[in-house]
Amino acid sequence: MPELPEVETIKNELLPYIIGHRITGITLFWDRIVRQPSVEEFCSRLVGQRITGVARRGKYLILDLTSDETLIIHLKMSGSLLLKPVSAEPDKFIRAILYLDKGTRLLFRDPRKLGAMWLVEDKNTIVGKLGPEPLEADFTPQLLAQRLNNRIAPIKAILCDQSFIAGIGNMYADEALFAARIHPLRSGKSLSKDEITRLHRSIQQVLWSAINDKGASVDTYFRPGGEVGTAHFQFQVAHYLSGKFCPVCGTAIERLPIRNRGSYFCPKCQPEV
Ligand SMILES: [Zn+2]
Fold it and tell me: Is 59 a catalytic residue?
């Protein structure tokens, strides 16, 4: 699933191709990709507008438009935004095409059909409840400590909660916890000051490293030009199957289901204390 580094990469790589461009048409092959307003209204209000800004908030891509409305896109489990098809074959997974002036096309590819688009006057109706951005200056160890205070849920589940911190999902939560040597089932409030400092640093390190590697193509993620990202080659535990070994101590990586998602961790480096 695209997480912060993948959506940040998509934003960075799309921006020069779409900023300032006018939307001249839209074709939908899967109407339910439009969540708000109705499909008819979405298309009629979108066409003719120029894209004036491209930003990311959490895992959402945010396109500002001349009408002061905002087009918000979420790629969910399997979405990609492509400037051209990933192969010369007709691609049955393209769910929408946005036609821009000067011949640019933006293809929304989404094998699992869970992706979503909203056209809204106030973007906060969609992204207003997100927690802090982990790579912004206001995300400090002190803020993380404050927000963990009294949280009894497993730290793994807390990190994946978008209202707690924006943009982290299963892969980068596992990587950050491994780097910080914290067991995924530890409760939020049980973390010491040192552990919180380590976790804060680990979160920022794994996210920056993955952005530098243009995201992780473990599944269906492609960059806008059709290339893959290479961040998954740096993964220490995420997406391992049981039976692989910890790159630090050689112990077998274990898998635990937490809130219906597999969590990978090293039982020796990340002891459950
Ligand atoms: Zn280990």
Answer: yes
Q: By CB neighbour count within 10 A (0-12 exposed, 13-18 middle, 19+ buried), where does 162 fall? A: middle
- The CA-atom distances, in angstroms, between 239 and each of 38, 156, 231, 265, 270 are 38, 15, 12, 10, 17
On the question of pLDDT at 242 being above 60, the answer is no
Asked if 111 is an active-site residue, the reply is no
Distance of CA 38 from the midpoint of ligand 1 (Å): 51
pLDDT for residue 244: 87
* Both structure tokens of 67: 């009408």
What CA–CA distance (Å, rounded) separates 236 from 262?
15
- Residue identified by tokens 């740096």 is 234
pTM exceeds 0.90, yes or no: yes
- For ligand 1, the distance from its centroid to the CA atom of residue 267, given in whole angstroms, is 7
Contact by Cβ (8 Å): 196, 162: no
- Locate 240 and state its tokens: 């391992």
141/146 Cα distance (integer angstroms)? 9
Bridge partners of 109, per DSSP, are 80, 94
Q: Which residue has the tokens 């969609």?
A: 126
Is 2 one of the annotated active-site residues of the chain? yes
